[in-house]
Write a structure and sequence with these properties.
Largest sheet: none
Shape: globular
Distance between the termini: 11 Å
Oligomer: single chain
Number of strands: 0
Helix content: 55-70%
Strand content: under 5%
Radius of gyration: 20 Å
Length: about 250
């Protein structure tokens, strides 16, 4: 059975210049038309960091605010110990379950949060121009959850996981999927879509060799993989294309 002509999951689908294709580049949107869901997520990341940074700088909160960052990490960061309690012991307290997501909104420094928010904004705009708002949010959440699960499975002890990076890598996965389909429609080498993630992994390896590296890359790589895989369904026409493929078997 042929796939629907408007399905972006079909690399042989409509050409890139077809204005009816949701996969075609959106040149008509103004530069600052950031999807609302991305603006909201960036606002949360930035808002939390601004409050914590203001407190640790002594601008608000009094003397006790100096420890706000440490308190936030203690209360909202994720760790393999949390994973063991939830999965191994069946503990389902909300204070534990929320950490699978809340860790994305607390950071170890202002600079870390700044770069994370900037990439979230850039990649979120690109993905949000193609995906619906719920689908874009789903990529963010799934990347966050995947990062926590992979970190909990593969890293031991109480090593903390925090920061928006696994979610950003989930959006990089969606970004890569969009490029992969776009290159396929143009008849070009689709492996070129993976240049960004390859570059990022190479940079991480270089920094790890020079300065030492933690285990956060495990969460980031899991976020990327799940973001890419989920995009096959979350992209416009993705669910219909999946049903077509299943009926063909």
């Amino acid at each position: 059975m042929p796939e629907p002509p408007g399905n972006i999951n079909n690399p042989r689908g409509p050409p890139m210049h077809d204005p009816q294709s949701p996969f075609a580049p959106r040149v008509e949107r103004p530069f600052n038309a950031i999807p609302t869901v991305i603006l909201a997520l960036v606002a949360i990341v930035a808002g939390v960091e601004l409050v914590i940074s203001a407190g640790t700088s002594g601008l608000i909160g009094g003397p006790g605010a100096v420890g706000w960052r440490l308190s936030a990490l203690n209360d909202y960061a994720f760790s393999p110990a949390v994973f063991d309690y939830v999965v191994g012991r069946g503990a389902m307290e909300p204070s534990l379950l929320m950490r699978f997501v809340t860790y994305a909104f607390v950071h170890g420094s202002f600079t870390d949060a700044l770069f994370g928010a900037a990439l979230l904004l850039a990649l979120g705009k690109f993905v949000g121009d193609v995906f619906s708002a719920p689908a874009t949010l789903a990529v963010f959440v799934l990347g966050t959850l995947a990062g926590a699960v992979a970190f909990g499975l593969l890293v031991g002890g109480t090593t903390p996981l925090f920061g928006v990076w696994p979610a950003v890598y989930g959006l990089i996965g969606a970004f890569t999927y969009i490029l992969w389909l776009r290159l396929g429609q143009a008849g070009e080498n689709q492996l070129a879509a993976f240049k960004l993630i390859g570059l990022l992994l190479a940079l991480q390896l270089a920094f790890g060799l020079l300065f030492g590296s933690g285990a956060v890359w495990i969460a980031e790589l899991a976020g990327f993989a799940v973001g890419f895989a989920a995009s096959t369904v979350l992209a416009p026409g993705g669910w219909s294309a999946l049903l077509v493929r299943l009926r063909q078997r």
